[in-house]
Amino acid sequence: MELGLVGLGKMGGNMRERIRRAGHTVVGYDRNPQLADAASLEEMVAKLPTPRVVWVMVPAGAPTEQTVGQLGELLSEGDVVVDGGNSKWTDDKKHAETLAKKGIGFVDAGVSGGVWGLQNGYALMVGGDAADVAKVQPVFDALKPEGDSGFVHAGKVGAGHFAKMVHNGIEYAMMQAFAEGWELLETSDVVENVTDTFASWEQGTVIRSWLLDLAVKALKEDPGLEDLRGYAEDSGEGRWTVEAAVDLAVPLPAITASLFARFASRQEDSPAMKMVAALRNQFGGHAVEA
Amino acid sequence: MELGLVGLGKMGGNMRERIRRAGHTVVGYDRNPQLADAASLEEMVAKLPTPRVVWVMVPAGAPTEQTVGQLGELLSEGDVVVDGGNSKWTDDKKHAETLAKKGIGFVDAGVSGGVWGLQNGYALMVGGDAADVAKVQPVFDALKPEGDSGFVHAGKVGAGHFAKMVHNGIEYAMMQAFAEGWELLETSDVVENVTDTFASWEQGTVIRSWLLDLAVKALKEDPGLEDLRGYAEDSGEGRWTVEAAVDLAVPLPAITASLFARFASRQEDSPAMKMVAALRNQFGGHAVEA
Amino acid sequence: MELGLVGLGKMGGNMRERIRRAGHTVVGYDRNPQLADAASLEEMVAKLPTPRVVWVMVPAGAPTEQTVGQLGELLSEGDVVVDGGNSKWTDDKKHAETLAKKGIGFVDAGVSGGVWGLQNGYALMVGGDAADVAKVQPVFDALKPEGDSGFVHAGKVGAGHFAKMVHNGIEYAMMQAFAEGWELLETSDVVENVTDTFASWEQGTVIRSWLLDLAVKALKEDPGLEDLRGYAEDSGEGRWTVEAAVDLAVPLPAITASLFARFASRQEDSPAMKMVAALRNQFGGHAVEA
Amino acid sequence: MELGLVGLGKMGGNMRERIRRAGHTVVGYDRNPQLADAASLEEMVAKLPTPRVVWVMVPAGAPTEQTVGQLGELLSEGDVVVDGGNSKWTDDKKHAETLAKKGIGFVDAGVSGGVWGLQNGYALMVGGDAADVAKVQPVFDALKPEGDSGFVHAGKVGAGHFAKMVHNGIEYAMMQAFAEGWELLETSDVVENVTDTFASWEQGTVIRSWLLDLAVKALKEDPGLEDLRGYAEDSGEGRWTVEAAVDLAVPLPAITASLFARFASRQEDSPAMKMVAALRNQFGGHAVEA
């Protein structure tokens, strides 16, 4: 089939390549003309047969909002827009409603796989009407990993990004799990070869996993992780996971602890702990550090 | 080689089978004569060539203590005792010292793999002197999974159980991660097919792992997990992990949250929340439930 | 001065009484005619001299929204509406903008004090323009406790409810602190007289506080809190506190743990712990409870 | 009555003063001869009438252990040793057993009050046999604050330090509660005068407390706490509280979060977050900081 693809950065560029390898035609557009197959969104749209399918792979928030709006102007009844970016699931309904006014379908697709996706395939969680999803299915099949899993039509519009959001929430806590275990091993002197111990866990253990494999890879490249700062951004999904849980009264202690650990990692100093230091000084005369 | 194996329960029985399949001789002893190859510890020891290697696979605490003590009476200089049970790593040093008085070596072996170990192999984390470990190595090689990983000589006596303890701490938080994510998906009605969504994550995602595979298996057997109570025991390693972290001043928020969730799961009612209810009633006249 | 007061429930009724004791005139309106001084909002407004000040003390959300809307119809330029309910601080701006179109001022007032406020006074945190706040000041002075504190003009519209929201977040964690300590004392058998121990803390300790006094009162009324269920609602402020923290990337582990403990207290069974039980059963053959 | 007092530092010195003001005789001993009333422990003991009461107020651990041991040599049947330091409650039983061999009684006394105790009195939680406690009661009465509370005989030997340990656990979480609330207010720009807001809470609110008073005092001395680093030691009781909870399977999320926040405050960089950064880089190519 033929696909319009907006956004050819780290993710989008690799996805174009994987879709092409599966025998499909991709007309890619990017603000950077060196990456693009078409000089403008208009040109990209004009090159596609109807019903057109356009996959948006730009940063969540304003860029996605804007691109969906422009596509609403350019596309026609029966066409479908796929948002494959990291959009908040509550944005999907708004985008779907905007496009529905012109009879354009909308599918949200959560995409996991990172820099390994070109080689291993991208796991896809999608939301939308069955008829709209069907129009994109050949592309989903091209992107997903081989085998039975790696794709789910999770529900109506929003369900794809919701599923991806929860996936990332789980991911945060799994990363934190390995991180805490590693710190404990490093701090104690009981285990003498921590990297080997992590490596030994890659087979036969309950915790064997792709993240463990990546941890071992990182530790072999930089034992002790001495070249790194303990600083971690968060891309939004972790926050939205906690927000959804708070909204639904679901206790989420491990995932939230993982999110807060990232927040704390980005602070030069902890304001809260200044207050604790101040209080200890006030009641106990405990020394403080300036 | 020939191995004495004390304790032929769920774990020990399968381990005997896997070691035998690798071509070694195992003389097993168990209090249950129907499982045992020898009528007594004495008989088991008598059947082994020197230097003898005896693997203890009985419950941690008093049973292990007692068995190690008896073996100390029966064995001789140059023999080696392996504790493959879930002993606390701080017990290992005591056992090693007791045996060392008679020149008997001691190796602690953390074993992961559960009911799948017979088929997939058991991951092994061992601690002890290199000479002692070497005497057991053929058995370790028989038990471990095929491939490069699944075995580590982690350090001196205690390091094997310490590594296994940390492994289990990580395991607690990984299980909690999937559990929290699953509860959020189940509570929300956005994703319509939660089991399929979990299954889709088995390939191509960042969170693909053996625990995820098991979660999918459980969900396919019992969608909604309606046949289960939300009740989870803890086997000790999670508590010791938190104790070690507290002792070493290592923050372990996700692992500890996972341990506390298990504690809470076993309470008929929460005393702490009685107090919260009482306080809300005192200051706000908020209704309470009796 | 003269005040219109909408909502004469548990809080509003006591506040009317305290304001009257200070020598002011209150024209109260409530849907329940037995509580009301005026038969309708219209009648209440008609009884007030200009510039009118009307205090809204109805449940947050739709009831407050509706009442503010009606007052917008009935009041005139120069009048002031005070929202003293537990509104979310983000609602305040919307209310202020609606009223500003007619030149009506808006002040948000977070009110703490519960059932003890009539006797001890109500702590007030208010947001709004200085000129609007000034029009309500005599009522604030009547409501607040004697002494220097108990009142703050915290900032622009929204600041009052924001300050109250954070106050309640702190309150959640303080309650949880006493609750956890109490459970630990009750569970251990080391301390033989837990109520006396709590009572002993009321003077001379670092943790002496009004909440402690209330805990002692509750324990003396019902030692062991045996007449209560460990079940606690949350009124919204705790959730909004966590949401604000997530939005601002502020780690809030103790307050969030307190919120999650309330969520968990209301679950018949924990879905998350069903998953943990299922996983333990899958990998370890651990017994589960049905 | 007459009291021997060992340890005349910040706490011990003030306690000697408060006991003397109540009309009792104190013979103090300290390694620093400028503080001491007796040149040696022997001389101090020799100056006391029988049955002697000696209060030990030296650092927990080895110094207390040693002092109790020396007093065991010097004292006689019917005498009583009080350990008023921050000893771990599990040490008390050992000390009591050592002294009991010579018929010497032992009382453990948890003491709260810090630098304010001289003026306000010290809250006391004591454990031991009633007959031993009775011998010390006049001193307890001198030390405690005026009024009904501030003293409890909490149970047998160990109960005093156990109660004090739980007190401090609660204290950790209360401090953390104020600290988190303060950070949220400071980070947001909604509330414009944070110190005034804290000060307004001192009366009429649910969270009014001595710790809040101290927070206001600290904020008035140093608005923004800019002269402080967010660095907080922990004195042991918080760790022991968590250990006791883990041992008794009591979930303690807020108190533990508070302890972990202190641990984290003392790290130059977070090893765990290095691992999180490494993993994000591995799977997503996310930039890391070196």
List the helices and strands and how they pair.
Four copies of one chain form a homotetramer.
Chain A: E1 2-6, H1 10-21, E2 25-29, H2 41-46, E3 53-56, H3 62-74, E4 80-83, H4 89-100, E5 105-112, H5 117-120, E6 123-127, H6 130-143, E7 151-155, H7 159-187, H8 194-200, H9 210-221, H10 237-248, H11 253-265, H12 271-284
Parallel strand pairs in A: 1-2, 1-3, 3-4, 4-5, 6-7
Antiparallel strand pairs in A: 5-6
Helix pairs in contact in A: 7-10, 7-11, 8-9
Question: What descriptors fit this protein?
Answer:
homotetramer; 290 residues; alpha/beta; 7-stranded mixed beta sheet; 12 helices; 12% strand; globular
Proportion of β residues of chain A? 5-15%
Contiguous helical run count of chain A: 12
- Oligomeric description of these chains: homotetramer
The chain-level structural class of chain A is alpha/beta
Series of secondary-structure elements of chain A, N-terminal to C-terminal: EHEHEHEHEHEHEHHHHHH
**Order of strands across the biggest sheet of chain A?**
2-1-3-4-5-6-7
Query: Segments of chain A where pLDDT lies below 50 for 5+ residues?
Result: none
Shape of chain A: globular
The chain pair with the largest interface is: A-B, 82 and 82 residues
Mean pLDDT of chain A comes to 96
Q: Count of DSSP E strands of chain A?
A: 7
- What's the main sheet of chain A like? 7 strands, mixed
**What share of the residues of chain A lie within helices?**
40-55%
Radius of gyration of chain A: 23 Å
Terminal-residue CA separation of chain A = 65 Å
